[in-house]
Specification:
The chain is of the alpha/beta class. The protein has helices at residues 35-49, 71-82, 102-110, 125-130, 137-149, 168-179, 198-201, 208-224, 243-249, 276-280, 293-304, 313-320, 324-327, 329-337, 358-365; strands at residues 8-14, 53-61, 84-95, 115-121, 155-161, 185-190, 228-231, 234-236, 254-257, 262-264, 268-272, 285-290, 311-312, 341-343, 347-350. The structure holds iron/sulfur cluster.
Length: 366
Amino acid sequence: MKTDTAQQGIYVHIPFCRSRCAYCGFVSSVCEHSDKDYVEALVHEIRERVSGTVDSVYFGGGTPSVLTGGLLKKIVKALRECAEFSADCEITTEANPDSFTDGFAAEAGECGVNRISFGMQSLNNDILAAAGRRHTAEQALAAVERAKLFGFENLSCDLMLGLPCSSEKDVIASVKTLCEQDIKHLSVYALSVEKGTPLYERGYKVDDDAAADVYEKVCLQLKGYGFERYEVSNFSKRGYECKHNKKYWTLAPYVGLGVAAHSYDGTRRSFNTSDIAGYIAGLRDERRETVTASDALEEYVMLGLRTAEGIDSNRASELCGCEWEQLKSRELNELIKLGMLERTLKGFKLSEKAYYVMNDIIVRLV
Ligand code: SF4
């Protein structure tokens, strides 16, 4: 089924990595020999499902930067044949520092990629080694330099809180060094130890209170460097928010292509198979579910309150089919009195102090 919705986002999953990180719960394989077959299957799926106008494309993984020999170009060519890219289309690729080579950078540039999101996690070599990352801090900084040499200025880096051996001092030092590289966007995620990962098997546990303290300090630090927090884990210089991720938080439609990708068309969510060999053999939808109005409202409030913009009361009313502010008036008034919620022109957003107890607040509003 083709989705032909105005200004949609496209997510493309590249499920290959050169090795597995100790905390990874994503669908990816270290066996790269099937990448050509995988891209063939992707092109089929693109032809079956993509049309209309696209204003964001996001290559995620896995590690998209392990693609070589024109495979990225092949995917983008198929996308451009099936859909019109808007003039301001944001095209992001995730990349790992060790595979972001001159060859990949050049091909990404030729494909029109205009945003690179580097998975770094830390700039401390001991922490990187403990997390099973393949690269060093030096390689990470060299990758940023390489991206700039190839003309990419919209650069994002990911850091992780709560990794083994990590301390507040290391995180603050990593943030400082990255901000000095003139990057435009930083994502700071708290490690979640997923079942089945090596860290889980080792019985590693994150000290949530310590991670929350570090997060609070990082927020202040980033403010000092001119970054705005536009979502709980995402900070950017003004005008450099990730257009694609904002689609997820506002329940805008998107098409997910590739293994384990999911899609949302406004009323329905579908999930592709997680079986790479099966996908290559032609398996597609694994599961579909209708998103009921109450599910959509719950998601909208949960995701919207994580953003600096907050939630729009009219949109919430549309989703619940009644006056949402009236429905939740007691809870809203209580939270405003407690200083946890603030009114905006369109609705409500969390106050600064509420970011640290947001889950408790969200539960009261859904
Ligand atoms: S690079 Fe990313 S997707 Fe690959 S193993 Fe590491 S965390 Fe997982």
